[in-house]
Amino acid sequence: MTNFEIIIGIENHVELKTKTKMFSDAPVTYGLHQNTMVNEIDLGYPGALPSVNKKGVELAVLACNALKMKINKILRFDRKSYFYSDLPKGFQITQQFHPIGKEGKIEIENSNGKKFIEIERLHIEEDTAKQIHKDGKTYIDYNRCGVGLVEIVSKPVLKNSEDVISYISKLRETLLFLNVSDVKMNEGSFRCDVNISLRPFGYEGFGNKVEIKNLNSLGNVKKAIDFEIKRQSELLLNNKLVEQETRRFDENIQETVLMRKKTDAIDYKYFREPNIFPIILEDSWINDVINNSPELANVKRLRFVNEYNFSIEDTNFLLNDYYLTKFFEECVTLGANPKKVLNYITSDIKSLLNKDNISINQSQLLPKNIVEIINLLDEGIISSKHVKSIIPICFENLTNVKELIDKNNWKLISDKSEIVKLLEPIIDKNKTLIQENYLNRPERVEKTIMGELMKITGGNVNPKVSMEIISLKLKNIK
């Protein structure tokens, strides 16, 4: 795209990971029966007064700090007149005039190199109800109504879809490891609106802005931006006006389509929220929140590479999944070798997760199971073959590993006298082979005998102990 400069800004709505809603004590849930998780405050009953969720404010402060923002020490809220069915009280509580965070930045890296993306503001507000359009009717689920959000608004400094994907990915990773939000695009806890305009190079004004709403995957974000850049460029090259409008991405035709025109800015008639007095956030409280912040993904990335000698590919594999990373770190805290844990996560465990399409926290597998399995393997009590049977059972059921091993007799034979008895007929059978080849090719003969031993025991023999006995016995054969 050589004819025009591309100007992109991003707005992200991020649901906060609190137990209750931002201004009521109704529970925050996902996927439960419609309209069962609401109360009088969410539904705007007369006389129902809001109260601020302290945990929600803590999470907003954590996000502001991680994004290097100036934190507003006075917490103030405003009313946004909002006469739609998805907010029944007729207004939304938000922070129009005094956002909790301003003037931040986040570093991204991709094929264009490293750079900082400036963030204009972060403010707290409440979510709207979910609307389902079906058979010409609109159904409303108020369970989401009132859930705490932070809206994070970048400055219009992004230049292409690659930078946008890098920005969104880094923002998601940051908020996920802070435990601020689940940031699940498919469940709506991390939503993305993209604003795009084009202008001739060297022109200082902005072209008409087109907003693309509710993009629900990184793939769709990229496709929508690339299509919209092409659409606007073709209009401008043909001396046509790019109209200011709101569009959405239609997955079926892989194009953005018109939702509504924007002739003028909507007057939301903002004013100070009268039912929530300003709250002073003391320096000591802000510092306590920041000092108790979870470790950021960037810090983990450096630690995994430097302390554990992990490759950047393995490190990123772990950090792409918050719950897998947490599982890994709990295993290491319990004393397991980091590389051995990683090997099981990237092979057996990941295979089971992919098969059931679930996260590790939705399985029954516990960190202590993996630690115990690794210890038993190191002690020569079980084999890698046994592990292949043990992990899937632990994955499906809460299980005591040692009891499972005893019940199924999944133990390696390690008793030397028993191994000697098993070896005697094998050595007798292969005496000629041993006498003719042992002096010239001892390793090959030892492996042949070991293979026979494994065969008759079904692999249930301690290889280290067995190989020591085999080597000693073969040396003594004349």
TrEMBL record:
One of its GO terms (molecular function) is asparaginyl-tRNA synthase (glutamine-hydrolyzing) activity. It comes from the Bacteria. One of its GO terms (biological process) is glutaminyl-tRNAGln biosynthesis via transamidation. PROSITE patterns: GATB. It catalyses: L-glutamyl-tRNA(Gln) + L-glutamine + ATP + H2O = L-glutaminyl-tRNA(Gln) + L-glutamate + ADP + phosphate + H(+); L-aspartyl-tRNA(Asn) + L-glutamine + ATP + H2O = L-asparaginyl-tRNA(Asn) + L-glutamate + ADP + phosphate + 2 H(+). InterPro entries: Asn/Gln-tRNA_amidoTrfase_suB/E, Asn/Gln-tRNA_Trfase_suB/E_cat, Asn/Gln_amidotransferase, Asn/Gln_tRNA_amidoTrase-B-like, GatB, GatB_C_1, GatB_Yqey_C_2, Gln-tRNA_amidoTrfase_suB_CS. The keyword Cell cycle does not apply. Residues 326-474 form the Asn/Gln amidotransferase domain. Keywords: ATP-binding, Ligase, Nucleotide-binding, Protein biosynthesis, Transferase. Its EC number is 6.3.5.-. It holds the Pfam family GatB_Yqey. The keyword Transmembrane does not apply. Heterotrimer of A, B and C subunits. Allows the formation of correctly charged Asn-tRNA(Asn) or Gln-tRNA(Gln) through the transamidation of misacylated Asp-tRNA(Asn) or Glu-tRNA(Gln) in organisms which lack either or both of asparaginyl-tRNA or glutaminyl-tRNA synthetases. The reaction takes place in the presence of glutamine and ATP through an activated phospho-Asp-tRNA(Asn) or phospho-Glu-tRNA(Gln). HAMAP family: GatB. PANTHER family: GLUTAMYL-TRNA GLN AMIDOTRANSFERASE SUBUNIT B MITOCHONDRIAL AND PROKARYOTIC PET112-RELATED, GLUTAMYL-TRNA(GLN) AMIDOTRANSFERASE SUBUNIT B, MITOCHONDRIAL. Belongs to the GatB/GatE family. GatB subfamily. This is Aspartyl/glutamyl-tRNA(Asn/Gln) amidotransferase subunit B. The gene is gatB.
